[in-house]
Amino acid sequence: MLKLLNVSKSYNKGSIKAVDNLTLEVQKGEIFGFLGPNGAGKTTTIKMITGLLENDSGSIAINDVDTKTSSIEAKKQFGFVPDSPHIYDRITGLEYLNFLGDIYGVAAVEREGTINELARLFELEDALRDIIQSYSHGMQQKLVIIGSLLHKPPFWVLDEPMVGLDPRSAHNLKQLMRAHCALGNSVFFSTHILEVAEKLCDQIGIIRKGQLIFSGTMDELRGEKQGRESLEQIFLELTE
Ligand SMILES: Nc1ncnc2c1ncn2[C@@H]1O[C@H](COP(=O)(O)OP(=O)(O)OP(=O)(O)O)[C@@H](O)[C@H]1O
Ligand SMILES: [Mg+2]
User: Fold this and answer.
1) What lines the ligand 1 site, CB under 6 Å?
2) Which of 42, 81, 239 for a ligand 1 pocket mutation test, highest count of atoms within 8 Å of Cβ?
3) Residues contacting 52, CB < 8 A, separation 6+
4) Which of 17, 26, 53, 171 could make a disulfide contact with 2, Cβ separation 3.0–4.6 Å?
């Protein structure tokens, strides 16, 4: 579903190497958790996957579509929840969702079905007719989550999606990620919440100073430690 091959990205004319020769794959039906300390390169990687930044070198394919040579087609393959919900805030939640529905060419009936289902799940139904300016951080986050799924994308990319969500909403989001993968789709998300990564992910990648220092299952990560250590301890050791 996702293939990154030798992807690199520098900022400030090469003085900051944010992502360094990154190669990783996410298979169909998998949830991939992307971990790493602050400044490790997670958001930069996600911005390259989603086309917000251009990679300096290497290649990225989503659902076998190359993000550079077929950028529009590649964008149709994923839904994206960025790390902070910067959205037009002088329109209503419903107007925002319809705007996204128009961009992605989602038919009215289908759009309505998804909006109703997800707004109910996230208890956002009553707020949809209010302007976004009046939303709390968590409400905006939920709106962005709903918008990212309107076109039923095969690949779902989320950058620290649990931030600002209350426990019930975080629980619902995790269920939604699982359900998405059960349909043969895939999820790629970054998080600092190790417990979530441990319980939810099929695969885990750990990035440090732009380089992938581990990629595999939780069992594989533990195997090296004979199951003696928690993910927290392993993470602290690996990223020291
Ligand atoms: N626009 C930018 N200009 C210059 N340097 C940047 C820019 N964005 C990120 N960086 C640098 O690139 C590196 C990787 O940053 P990135 O935002 O990808 O990290 P991250 O893993 O998402 O961190 P966090 O966990 O804090 O979100 C850091 O050294 C950061 O300072
Ligand atoms: Mg980040």
Assistant:
1) 11-12, 16, 18, 36, 38-44
2) 42
3) none
4) 26
**pLDDT tens, position by position, 132-188:** 999 999 999 999 999 999 999 999 999 999 998 999 999 999 999 999 999 999 999
Q: What does each C-alpha distance from 52 to 7, 19, 101, 156, 223 come to in angstroms?
A: 15, 15, 20, 15, 37
Query: Which of ligand 1's atoms lies nearest the C-alpha of 47?
Result: 18
pTM, 2 dp: 0.95
Q: Which one, of 240, 120, 110, 104, lies nearest residue 176 by Cα?
A: 120
Domain chopping of the chain, boundaries: 2-77+154-238, 85-152
Using CA atoms, how far apart are residues 184 and 139, in angstroms rounded to an integer? 28
Nearest CA to ligand 1 atom 6: 11
**Which ligand lies nearest the alpha carbon of 11?**
1
Q: How far away, in angstroms, is 109 Cα from ligand 2 center?
A: 35
Architecture of domain 2-77+154-238: 3-Layer(aba) Sandwich (3.40)
How far is CA 236 from each of CA 36, 186, 190, 206, rounded to the nearest angstrom? Answer: 10, 28, 17, 11
Whose alpha carbon is nearest atom 24 of ligand 1?
38
For residue 5, give the H/E element and its range. strand 2-11
- Structural tokens at position 194: 């190790």
Q: Which residues fall within 8 angstroms of residue 100, CB to CB, at 6 or more apart?
A: 106, 147, 150, 151
